[in-house]
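Figure 6 in text form: structure in, sequence out.
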């Protein structure tokens, strides 16, 4: 919905009944007079994500769309580096933190962490995609 779709179209696309969607998304929806709903520009929903940090891979709770997006883009950059050896995407994250954890951009540190497992088969950004935190 943040990209211009209507609430009813977005809920149908997600195969959800609109009443069910309203029930679970009420904290991120705004009722705009009449019968129209739209999504807030951001939210504070918490999610557990796996982050690449100096200490290794940590399971961390992040809050809000901006933090979830940052975690997701960093994860994408790490996967890109793991597949290609190209560090260009990692440069955007130099000096950035999520909570108290600095996002890793150093190839030597990433290589040490990545040597322990196969990123494509074993690593997911969300520690449990079905888990909803309240």
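Output sequence:
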């Amino acid at each position: 919905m943040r990209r211009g779709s209507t609430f009813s179209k977005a809920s149908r696309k997600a195969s959800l009944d609109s009443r069910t969607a309203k029930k679970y998304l009420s904290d991120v929806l705004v009722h705009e007079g009449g019968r129209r709903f739209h999504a807030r520009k951001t939210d504070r929903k918490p999610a557990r994500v796996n982050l690449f940090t100096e200490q290794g891979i940590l399971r961390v709770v992040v809050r809000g769309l901006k933090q979830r997006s940052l975690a997701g883009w960093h994860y994408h950059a790490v996967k890109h580096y793991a597949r290609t050896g190209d560090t260009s995407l990692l440069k955007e994250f130099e000096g950035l933190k999520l909570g108290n954890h600095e996002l890793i951009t150093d190839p030597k540190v990433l290589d040490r962490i990545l040597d322990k497992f196969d990123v494509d088969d074993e690593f997911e950004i969300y520690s449990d995609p079905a888990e909803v935190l309240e």
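Caption detail: The helical segments are 7-13, 18-25, 64-84, 107-114, 119-122.
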